[in-house]
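INTERNAL AUDIT FORM
Audit reference: QA-55
Scope: verify that the stored structure record matches its stored sequence.
Auditor: D.O.
Record contents follow.
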Amino acid sequence: MGKKCMIPSLVSAFPAGTKGCVIAEGVLIASNVYLGNYVTIYPKVQVDSEAIILDGAVLGRLPIPNATSTRSTPSDFIKLSIGAGSIVGCNAVIYTGSSIGKRVLIGDQASLREGCEIGDQVIIGRGVQVLYECKIGNRSRIQDQAHLVGNLIIEEDVFIGMGVMTANDNNVYLSRFGLEKLDLHGPVIRRFAVIGTGATLLPGIEIGSGAMVAAGSVVTKDVAPWTVVAGIPAKYLKDIPIDWRKKLEESHLQANQ
């Protein structure tokens, strides 16, 4: 660290930045990437063409555990790639060892931990917390202030509402003290599913394709595909209308022809 970054060719819509910007040796930045003021880039980061990294963003941070941490973390930098045309918001922090696809939007003050795989055209809203080893499929949208727990899987074309909470440890009573081995299983959210604002998804459950979880629900067991659940705990309410399902499937088929 400590090398002042060079000013790249700027994306035309943005004014000149790069005041106080610092990058590590060996970082790969395409010539037409925009870097805002006070951006910090750690080792083994690659930023592809036409990406926009806004003021105060941190790329490639290494996690630093303390004496009471129960999960092992990387002790050295691993490649972090930011795909072409992606935008990283102000003061967002992306840890080492993740892969960010093309034309992804990561909102201001979002945080992505190590080992994540983010597909193309994903939206991650302001203040979203994406923990370790999450997978988010193409075109999925995560609204502001959602918390995505480690080892969570989100397939393509999923919508996660504001303030959604997820969990991955059913044995936290003992595992938090290291008295039993960590066995972490985040939820799995299948394609076309919708999770309403403020819902909570408990460890290891699966939300089926095209299912909808109503706002504020607490999901404690699997949700069948193309159904609506609601309540605390969430229970079956009705099926997704067949014409909704048909429109989704036909629209996706046309878009991929």
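Auditor finding: record pair retrieved intact. The first strand starts at residue 3 and ends at 4.
Action required: none
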